[in-house]
Specification:
With 347 residues, the protein is of the alpha+beta class. It has 2 domains: 216 residues, Endonuclease III, domain 1 (Orthogonal Bundle), CATH 1.10.340; 115 residues, Nucleoside Triphosphate Pyrophosphohydrolase (Alpha-Beta Complex), CATH 3.90.79. 44% of the residues lie in helices and 13% in strands. It contains 15 helices and 8 strands. Strands 1, 2, 3, 4, 5, 6, 7 and 8 form an 8-stranded mixed beta sheet that branches. It binds a DNA duplex (11 and 11 nucleotides) through helix 6 and helix 8.
Length: 347
DNA sequence: AAATCGGGGCA
DNA sequence: TGCCCAGATTT
């Protein structure tokens, strides 16, 4: 499809369904656009509205904001969260009072140089306040574009983000830039939502590749988490009659103080294990994987049946218990699972 | 419990 | 330049 069609469809939808009566849209002065855009970073419209109203009554312009103390500004921010935004807002007001005649600079680079204003917010101010042709790429727009193109990669990836900025720029209309930017945000907020997008109401539905996949909510695709480092260990499951040998783990480290099977380094050779005692049988059981926050542990259990005459040296941290008794001890989940399996005779 | 979000800050 | 964080909400 042509870039022109995209903006035409979006603008036609905006005329019918867009939001035109938000507090910062009447009037959409540069100061009010700036304030609202900063408040809207990481905070949704319905939350922002009452804060915005109170804020502009107390600080109606850049000068009054710049002359206030940071503490008072933060009082009016209290409850919005992300207080660095409030501090940066005040800092920027002071800078604008000193360097820009207490006005919002009508210049992209000058905006970008102010604290709390990045590329997207600078673009929003240029478009919404000054009707200049700049794109934005906030969370809503990113989602709309990722769906529209069925972007297969995570949009946080540098090259994808670069491509999305380029796409956003290429789609800009020649006229009505402020309505168009507002339309993008509105579509993302009300139709092309993160979950359960309302594709049937979407002006872009016929050309949307995400919708054609049948799973628009799959876009944007999530960041693939880095593979967790994997560690290995071996558990020795000594079994004699109906009893098993458990060992209290050290207080520090994983599963501190809980009861587990004697654990040995995975590198210990089998003959070294064998040398410890005469055994009836040694059976490798199915490995167990257990995932922690920072690594994955693969446990190789070795079932060792001991006959009556074998002697296993135990220490103070170890005890022979029946399976029934073991279940009343503090057992890590994988130990519990393993005991249940033994109980059922599964290997 | 995990993902999300725009900008700041740091190597 | 590329990565991670803050800090709160949403799913």
């Amino acid at each position: 499809m042509s870039e022109k069609l995209f903006s035409q469809q979006l603008l036609a939808w905006f005329d019918q369904h867009g939001r035109k009566n938000l507090p910062w849209q009447q009037p959409a002065t540069p100061y009010r656009v700036w304030l609202s855009e900063v408040m809207l970073q990481q905070t949704q419209v319905s939350t922002v509205i009452p804060y915005f109203q109170r804020f502009v009554v107390r600080f109606p312009d850049i000068r009054s904001l710049a002359e206030a103390s940071t503490d008072e500004v933060l009082q009016y921010w209290a409850g919005l969260g992300y207080y660095a935004r409030g501090r940066n807002l005040h800092k920027a007001a002071v800078i604008m009072a000193q360097q820009h005649n207490a006005a919002i600079p009508e210049n992209f680079d000058a905006l970008l140089a102010l604290p709390g204003i990045g590329r997207s917010t600078a673009g929003a101010i240029m478009a919404l306040a000054f009707q200049h042709r700049y794109p934005i790429l906030d969370g809503n727009v990113k989602r709309v574009l990722c769906r529209f193109t069925a972007e297969p990669d995570w949009p946080g990836q540098k090259n994808i983000e670069t491509a999305l900025w380029q796409l956003a720029e290429s789609l800009l209309p020649e006229r009505r830039i402020n309505a168009y930017i507002q339309a993008q945000m509105d579509l993302g907020a009300t139709v092309c939502t993160r979950s359960k997008p309302d594709c049937h109401c979407c002006p872009l539905q016929t050309n949307c590749l995400g919708r054609q996949t049948g799973k628009p909510e799959h876009y944007p695709v999530r960041k693939k988490k880095p593979a967790l480092p994997e560690r290995h260990c071996r558990w020795l499951i000594y079994r004699q009659s109906e009893k098993i040998l458990l060992e209290k783990r050290p207080e520090k480290g994983i599963w501190g103080g809980m009861w587990s099977f004697p654990e040995i380094n995975i590198d210990m050779p089998m003959d070294a294990i064998l040398a410890r005692h005469a055994v009836d049988d040694m059976i490798d059981l199915t490995p167990i994987r257990h995932t922690f926050t920072h690594f994955r542990l693969q446990i190789i259990p070795l079932l060792i049946d001991i006959n009556q005459h074998d002697q296993i040296e135990t220490n103070d941290n170890q005890q022979w218990v029946t399976i029934t008794d073991s279940l009343s001890l503090a057992l890590p989940a994988p130990v519990n699972k393993l005991i249940q399996k033994l109980n059922r005779g599964v290997t």
